[in-house]
Design goal:
Blueprint: H1 3-6, E1 10-22, E2 30-39, E3 42-48, H2 49-55, E4 56-62, E5 68-71, E6 73-75, H3 94-107, H4 111-127, E7 130-134, H5 141-151, E8 154-157, H6 181-198, E9 203-205, E10 207-208, H7 217-229, E11 234-238, H8 242-252, H9 256-262, E12 270-274, H10 280-289, E13 292-295, H11 297-302, H12 307-310, H13 313-318, E14 323-325, H14 330-333, H15 338-353, H16 361-375, E15 393-396, H17 409-416, E16 422-427, E17 430-434, E18 437-438, H18 443-461
Parallel strand pairs: 1-4, 1-5, 6-7, 7-8, 8-9, 10-11, 11-12, 12-13, 13-14
Antiparallel strand pairs: 1-2, 2-3, 5-15, 15-16, 16-17, 17-18
Helix pairs in contact: 4-5, 4-18, 6-7, 15-16, 15-17, 16-17
Bound molecules: zinc ion.
Length: 472
């Protein structure tokens, strides 16, 4: 008898198995016929299925011998303040869309609306395998925190903040949340304290300002300092279009990223969203500062930002800049599916550089998982399937045309999957999606509530979201 034969299997809460377990660990190991053991929400072992089942006796066995298992996906930019999906007037570019549709919609949302929107957004993200997201500034923060806690999703969030005193001026901005820089900084600090007082292990704070020509230098620098003081994350939109770049060149004589550096607001606790208009110096500044970024490919394409012409995605990825993938608000991307963002993150830079190696499938999958967690400064807790990390796990059903025939699981997930193939999701060891069904949220009920709110808001702001073709 060997020593191993005499050892009784250890009791654990859960074991998840799969045909391929893609760990994104330090060695980027993929276990064929693999498994993950989870206890008290934490990963306690990752390895071969037979070995894990010999060593552990799970209370719950999620046995999916045909599945692809990956770490939970991260959405690095997903607004909860948002507008009716599919209702944004066609043909609008970033600045016009913000002023004519997006800001008036935000202003119309009540506390109850935000509670519904947050639960609906969490439901949609979980359904498609997102376990962690970054919310770049919501309103009615306490209602949002309650909703996210109910949903079981992991998040970083803070209050929507601006002082309407940036390079774009206040023209066209709504009479909504108007405040000066000092009041805005108080609101940001209060936001951090509110999230910390809420004291939920899955919800972290962020220092969130809008940033596209709507914030003074005083506010931007002050917010960057707050993130350092509180050891938080400073989140803002930056370099989102050529128009924004031209505007800042005119106002400051330098590009947006360079200007952030000049005023002392670019550092390692900064997450820059969008970043579709960069030059080589911008890339150098981001790399040197240790700042993080999110790439939002469907949002960039739909708003005609020129991301394949003025983006620097290959350079940023090659330099190892922590990069999350995001979907932006649902009115912009019309979806919150990080699988679709992965495809574009892998493919668009190839076209723009005419280099088929510009961004690999592995790099895209890494952005969607560990890269996103790192961009949110949460890589010590999540982002990979490793012992000691939180059990945020996504199981893809492969019994479909997207994922079969199956020879290279990374290629199939990145190029072929959508979130509809996600079967099971665990967050912190809790099963929040089972067999494609949400365990804590009423999907159909939330959809009905959101459509009602959308209709009311669209009526208030005078937008009729109709296709160009007649509806008879
Ligand atoms: Zn945004």
């Amino acid at each position: 008898m060997t020593v191993q034969d005499r050892i009784e299997p250890a009791a654990v809460d859960t074991v998840v198995t799969g045909e391929y377990v893609i760990t994104v660990n330090t060695g980027r190991e993929i276990f064929r016929d693999g498994a993950i053991a989870v206890d008290h929400g934490i990963i306690v072992a990752v390895g071969k299925r037979a070995d894990i089942l010999a060593r552990y006796r799970p209370a719950t066995l999620i046995d999916k011998p045909d599945a692809i298992v990956i770490p939970g996906l991260t959405n690095g930019h997903r607004h909860l303040l948002c507008c009716a999906k599919g209702a944004m007037p066609e043909g609008g570019q970033t600045l016009a869309a913000l002023r004519e549709f997006i800001y008036p919609s935000f202003a119309a949302l009540t506390e109850d609306d935000m509670h519904v929107y947050a639960r609906h957004a969490a439901a949609e993200m979980i359904r498609f395998g997102t376990t962690l997201f970054e919310e770049p500034g919501c309103n009615h923060l306490e209602a949002v925190l309650e909703a996210l806690a109910d949903a079981g999703i992991r998040a970083r969030t803070g209050p929507w903040t601006w002082d309407q005193a940036g390079a774009a001026g206040a023209d066209g901005l709504p009479d909504w949340l108007t405040m000066d820089a000092d009041t805005a900084l108080d609101r940001l600090a209060e936001g951090v304290r509110t999230v910390r007082k809420f004291n939920h292990p899955r919800i972290l704070d962020a220092v969130t300002i809008e940033g596209v020509g709507t914030c003074s230098d005083e506010l931007t620098r002050g917010a960057a300092d707050l993130a350092t003081e509180y050891d938080s994350l400073f989140v803002l939109h930056k370099s989102t279009s050529e128009r924004e770049v031209e505007m800042e060149l005119k106002a400051f004589g330098e590009r947006p990223v360079a200007h952030m550096d000049t005023i002392g607001a670019l550092h390692e606790r900064v997450l820059l969203n969008h970043m579709t208009s960069l030059d080589a110096r911008d890339v150098e500044l981001v790399v040197a500062s240790g700042a993080r970024i999110s790439q939002n490919p469907t949002s960039a394409l739909k708003l005609a930002k020129g991301t394949t012409q003025t983006g620097k995605w290959r350079e940023l990825a090659a330099a190892g800049v922590p990069m999350a993938l995001g979907t932006d608000a649902e009115n912009v991307s019309n979806h919150t599916d990080i699988c679709r963002a992965m495809q574009l993150a892998a493919l668009l830079p190839r076209d723009s550089t005419r280099d088929p190696n510009a961004v690999s499938a592995e790099q895209a999958l890494e952005m969607a998982t560990l890269g996103g967690a790192t961009a949110l400064r949460m890589q010590d807790q999540v982002g990979s399937l490793e012992v000691g990390k939180q059990a945020d796990i996504v199981v893809f059903d492969t019994g479909n045309f997207d994922l079969r025939p199956l020879h290279n699981p990374v290629a199939n997930v990145v190029y072929g999957s959508t979130g509809h193939s996600v079967d099971t999701v665990l967050i912190g060891g809790d099963v929040v999606l089972r067999g494609g069904q949400l365990t804590a949220l009423d999907e159909a009920g939330l959809r009905h509530q959101v459509e009602e709110i959308n209709r009311r808001v669209l009526g208030e702001i005078g937008i009729a979201p109709l296709p160009r073709w007649p509806i008879i």
